[in-house]
Amino acid sequence: MKHLLATEGLAYDDALAILDTAEEMAAVSSREVKKLPTLRGRTVVNLFYEDSTRTRVSFEAAAKRLSADVVNFSAKGSSVSKGESLKDTVQTLDAMGADAIVIRHSASGSAAQLAASDWSEAAVVNAGDGAHEHPTQALLDALTLRRGWYSGHSATGSPRGTDLAGMKVLIVGDIVHSRVARSNVWLLRTLGAEVHFAAPATLLPYGVVSWPVIVHYSLDEALEAAPDAVMMLRVQAERMGGVFFPTAAEYTRRWGLTDERLARTQAMILHPGPMNRGVEISAAAADSPQAKILDQVAHGVAVRMAVLHLLLTGEH
Amino acid sequence: MSTTYLITGARPYGEDPQDVLIEGGRIAEIGPDIGHRAAPQLTDDAVIIDGSGLVLLPGMVDLHVHLREPGREDAETVETGSRAAAAGGFTAVHAMANSSPVADTAGVVEQVHRLGLDSGWTEVYPVGAITRGLGGTVLAELGAMADSSAQVRMFSDDGHCVNNAQLMRRALEYVKTIGGFVAQHAQDAHLTGWDTEHVAQMNEGKVSATLGLPGWPSVAEEAIIARDVLLADYTGARLHICHVSTAGSVEIIRWAKQRGIQVTAEVTPHHLMLTDDLVKSYNPVYKVNPPLRTEADTLALREALAEGIIDCVGTDHAPHPDQAKECEWAQAAMGMTGLETALPVVQHAMVETGLISWRRFAEITSVRPSDIYGHDHQGRPLAAGEPANLILVDPSVTTTVRPEDHATKGRNSPFRGLELPGQVRHTFLGGHQVLAQGELTSSRTGRTAR
């Protein structure tokens, strides 16, 4: 692996290697001294064309725990707002000696374009490109799911080396605009899980029939299929204006994880954040013992440490 | 005094070898063994061309190019686009109106026409805008453009669809009044999120679902074509459909033609060959309007072109400077160069596949587009007395596409690196040889390519 651009096409062995390494990194994060020397002298650039404090801070913490130097380059207030092209920005960062570029961009494919170009020799990590993919989010979700799935089946030991074979994962909400959903579909399938969607047809991709998933229009029906985990996607404010569905209230009634629906499921509850409490997820659901939302955040740092470690040290 | 040319042993329409004598801008004689008889009488400055192995065809006529002048001379000029036309075997091109300023007045179309005459590598016919500024709200001065020295007959807002049905109806009626035709860029604005943040980026389907790029549904094209053939029927006007890209569009046009509606249609070489699978690379060289579709669409388009449901090939030659394509997909410009790869691509997709003969090739690249426009000197038979707008093609060579070698300023060819059959070796524009042995010589006005 030279880059991490997508979970589509990510090999099973590579996925397991990242998850197993992340387990080791998680152990580091629970120590008093949360630091490894492995990337000392290496430079990781966080190139963020979209605001995302959560993801950037997570990558920054991951790189720093590996002793790398971190440069944060945000599109706002930078030369990008003066119209500098991606090519020129990347060549500039390359000339400054970036070993890895973590890129977040509103344009689908920008990470892949960067990796395919001769603009930089750096390893490229996709931190979210448009509605395409967000592979580290799917990997941290998988780490969270694997821990839960494993502990549900085994009394002791570590989930290392195991996958999600037989697990049923339901993804609910705005699939069409979601890079999180896309990355999760491919990774979950690679790890052997069964994937269900629940969403109105307006929020499903037109080509979804060709995906290896089971589609429900009704969340109630989807819950009757007894998923082991439910992943609630954030409903973006700009989708609520009556163009994709009539109102937020109608959305909540039909596709929200309400208190009533919470009472009908034992599934783990995941959410990539930030949540709209009272829209796609009720406060009780978000705060219930089934919710693994803060675990996801912690696992994010471990997974990103694993990815940076594997890409930059070539240890595999 | 124009040069006399004797072409020996070339195969008209790929059929039996003939000799051709070109004098005074016309085909003086064509037939077997003219060479033996005529050669001794030729003057010293006459040129003899060994045509053995070459296919003789009427010069190609392109109803759809973007020459970018005035306004975007960094992308292309009438001069460089005309050279590309000559190199690609086109003896007439029709320059779309989306220049800056827009070709929506007599002044602009006369300027483009004049630039074409001055260049002299090919015939340049400006297309007039249907609506003022391509704004889609009020009619441009169609009559003034028709009456100008450019004598515009073809009107199109290409690059933009005339979305307003009432305005489209009136355009069809008004253009009928002044003896022209309307060429529609069929793309429903709402279905493609036009002028919104989520503007369509690629064909909607399996690939767009995975790539997370906003989809460009086939129905956005088909719904407009369906509406417009009904309007053409209702108004009794002529309608031309630009760059048909979907199998569904073919079925609507088939239905319209069966009903006797005056509709004609073109397809681009790239839509005959390339599919949306290429977008997986996110390389913006594959970004084009209408978007690359599926393999099923390319096959339906090929059959429709062979059968005559689609009348002709139009390249939609759309050069862009490098920076317009060296950027994020969503920000990249739409369009591909096409003039210098058209013949190889059509040979590859249509001739090599056995779908058409070279005689049919001449119809779809020359005869039909000339008929649609109403030219009386292009797309003519290969016969004595006809204007010498001719090309000689070597169908047996295979070349690798190198955009850096092209005469167009645009390097945005989606065929880069592909090995394609067929090469235009000679182009005659009204009896003047603008291309010899695959190299630009001099234009009718004495310009050279350097």
Keyword list:
heterodimer; A: 316 residues; alpha/beta; Rossmann fold; 2 domains; 5-stranded parallel beta sheet; 4-stranded parallel beta sheet; 9 strands; globular; B: 450 residues; TIM Barrel; 9-stranded mixed beta sheet; 12 helices; 19 strands
The largest interface is: A-B, 26 and 24 residues
Structural class call of chain B reads alpha/beta
What structural class do you assign from the helix and strand content of chain A? alpha/beta
* Assembly form of the protein: heterodimer
What is the CATH class of chain B? Answer: Alpha Beta
Poorly predicted regions of chain B = none
Strand order of the largest sheet of chain A: 7-6-5-8-9
Count of the separate structural domains of chain A: 2
- How helical, in percent, are the residues of chain B? 25-40%
Q: Brief overview, please?
A:
The complex is a heterodimer of chains A (316) and B (450). With 316 residues, chain A is of the alpha/beta class. Chain A has eleven helices and nine strands.
Describe this structure in words.
The complex is a heterodimer of chains A (316) and B (450). Chain A is an alpha/beta fold. Chain A has two domains: 139 residues, Aspartate/ornithine carbamoyltransferase (Rossmann fold, 3-Layer(aba) Sandwich), CATH 3.40.50; 162 residues, Aspartate/ornithine carbamoyltransferase (Rossmann fold, 3-Layer(aba) Sandwich), CATH 3.40.50. In chain A, 39% of the residues lie in helices and 14% in strands. Chain A has a five-stranded parallel sheet with strand order 7-6-5-8-9. Chain A has a four-stranded parallel sheet with strand order 2-1-3-4, sandwiched between helices. In chain A, helix 1 crosses helix 11 and helix 5 packs across helix 11. Chain B is of the alpha/beta class and 450 residues long. Chain B is built from twelve helices and 19 strands. In chain B, strands 1, 2, 3, 4, 5, 16, 17, 18 and 19 form a nine-stranded mixed sheet that branches. In chain B, strands 9-10-13-14-15 form a five-stranded parallel sheet. Chain B has a three-stranded parallel sheet with strand order 6-7-8. In chain B, strand 1 and strand 2 form a beta hairpin. Chain B is globular. The two termini of chain B are 25 Å apart. The chains are: A alpha/beta (316), B alpha/beta (450).
